[in-house]
Protein 1
Amino acid sequence: MEPGSVLGVGTGSTVDLFIAALAASGIPLAGAVSSSERSTQALRAAGITVLEAAAVERLSTYIDGADEIDPKGHMIKGGGAALTREKIVADLADRFVCIADASKCVEVLGRFPLPVEVIPMAAPKLIRRFAELGGQASLRAGCVTDNGQHILDVRGLAITDPLAFEAEISQWPGVVTVGIFARHRARVALIGAAEGVRTLNFD
């Protein structure tokens, strides 16, 4: 991270640790664009200025975790229900850096339930559509996103073509965002394991 830069920051337990490390590093940032109310609060508590996404034309780097990541840098995200804002901030960035532990690495996406942010009135229809694909979708109990919408978690999928699947589900009426990050895949992954951190670069 370059001193004086503006950083895109994701959401989740791994990012909470990153924000704490960022505050302890003493690197002076011009600010950060946050993907959730949770991260906004943590950044402000760390003394880091939070900027609105609308005030930023581009970011050099977006840093976030993942629920799953495959060998090409495609990810499933949204376990923390911030997938829509995460994708918006990722779209501003030239580079997505994923930080995750080794348990998140998979050969094929889908072991982790796929989060889909949906408009509530569309949920029953979308549950039926996922069933046609062999997926078992259910509403995440008690979850309302920062955007005021609901989350479906879809189990039983094997996502062998993440880019095509992301494009297809994104077209379904009532879907706000699907938690496949293929178009906005990681360019670098820092994978924590017992033996240390591995750096993976994706072309």
Protein 2
Amino acid sequence: MSDDAEAGADAEAAYLFTVQLYLDAEAPDVWLDPAITETTMHKAAAEPGEEGWMFFRDNLWRGEINNYEHTRRLAEEALGMEVRSIEFRELRASEAYYEDLQAEIGEHLDAFKADDAAEVVKKYLGSRVHVRE
């Protein structure tokens, strides 16, 4: 496992996406068949209250990507390759992270136009939250 993968595996929370990538060979006498592969992209979730912690609010709605082309371009920039498709799978988080996230949401309910943190989670993430030990 690479150092980057090990660092990501230690993240308290991550957004998981299924992505289909287009692979293109540099050499003209080499090709790939199939040239499209599917994998899981993990994006570390910012700590609640830190810059970027509202990623879910800005990019998801009821557990689905709210602006497909924008999110696909973000993935292409992050991966440095063509992304043919992207689908949100889940927010995977430790119990501590999820509790902190709910508390932080509770402090900013006006930004979500909601009455409580549970409503916010349902509104943006749907049922796609996986809390792990």
Protein 3
Amino acid sequence: MSENEGTVTLASTTYRVQGDSRVLSVVTSGASYSPGTPVGQAIENVFGNVQVLFGAIVLLAGFATIGGTTAAFAQAVHARGRTIGIHRATGATDRQVLWMLVRDAVVIALPSTLVGVLIAYVALRVLEFSGLLVVFGIRLSIPAVPWLVAMVIVGGLLLSMTSVVAGALGFLRAPPTRLLRLRE
């Protein structure tokens, strides 16, 4: 008995696939496309370069992160307005007050940034292992480049320190007597 016994072929068609320079660039760039996903082709036809689309999404997420971080640290500085007033009333210079606030921001931001990077790395590896990094028919490959990870950590710290300084400027310009009337 053969394996094909009992099956009937109803039709057979042969396709010849031709392409232009885009096909060659996809093959040479090492990108891997998942077969059978017309969504990927539709997105590429509508938006063109999918990397530009992802870049725009990452940029928007970055702006949202910057805004959220700045607001959180500004609120934290505002909550310490009376304390800032006490320091200033007892003779602390603006530089000393800023140094105190920036030091507090680093103490909070450094462990948070390290934990966030670690969680992001583990989440990406889990998604990659499970095959869920296929978006619009394109398989994403995200290498853990050490200099990029270091830039993320340094960027997070700089963002935190800048946010604290931006939130503190109003308190440093106000007279200490007005700050002492604030409630914490």
Protein 4
Amino acid sequence: MRDPRVQTLAKQLVNYSIECKPGEKVLIEMIGTERELLKCVIEEVQACGGFPFVEITDPSVMRSLLMNASKDQIEEWSSYDLIRMKKMDAYIGIRSGDNSNELSDVPDEQMKMYINDYRHPVHSEQRVKHTKWVILRYPNNSMAQSANMSTETFEDFYFNVCNLDYAKMSDSMDALVKLMNQTDKVKIKSPGTELSFSIKDIPAIKCAGSNNIPDGEVYTAPVLESVNGTISYNTPTVYSGITFENIQFTFENGKIVKATSNDTERLNKILDSDAGARYIGEFSLGFNPYIKYPMKDILFDEKIDGSMHFTPGQAYDEADNGNRSSVHWDLVLIQRPEFGGGEIYFDDRLIRKDGRFVISELELLNPENLT
């Protein structure tokens, strides 16, 4: 017998997130071994009159594919998949691999080619810009371990997060979108962080279950050369299978001029991928009421209640500051008291303190009003 929570999630993905319409072609990409949700999503797409297409990938097989891949091979692979993606109206990506570090020993050169020659044209340029899309993780033992929870407790947590009333959350975001669209100067203060920048005339975009599940953020981007100061991120992050911790950036006129972490050399290699990787492409506030602690999974961590992320690399078209890069790396700073606290100012007005919105028009985004 199917878990009814899985069926509810499938309905949300198909009917709310991508708003599937009759005749639309939907690519469902499953990375991992989960099948129950995959079958439910197929059935929901068909119930809407859509046409489901399925790609199933095993992360360990992906590792074998990449370990000794040549540039010609990756470019051919990209060309093949790009043709398919261009035929799609929508995309649902389900990630369920047991080991988030499966690609950690793929050589840097192969990973760079994969990101630049495959991920960028197929996903960043085609899927993101030309399809309706949503991406999610599916719970497994590895995720429960990363979240320091039992498997059963994590499953309950997962479905609370993913089956949240995102339509209600969307309405509550409108006031923050309005305020951000009226704001020029932003100041961020936290332990090890003194940062200032402008978001003037760059649109604020709400994320309420349309592109990511879980969701719960409003993002924009800084004016490209306006960022000055230092930020110290307090959340571990995984990039190409490698875990980074204690990342700190110093900015001068928008550019990261100093970058340190537990692996400073590898960090700077990523930032040297191209000119845009040392500039910021996204600034976002996260407030999903059920997500409290990091689990080294960015789809969850970037929505942590009381968090913000400040992202080196590519800007989104919807909130475009002109930055272009093969990198888009969401790095998270949590400002709730147990993580050291912090303050966010818009035009010298305190709008969030220690992770809670403190002005009346934004109170609906505090956790007790979203659950």
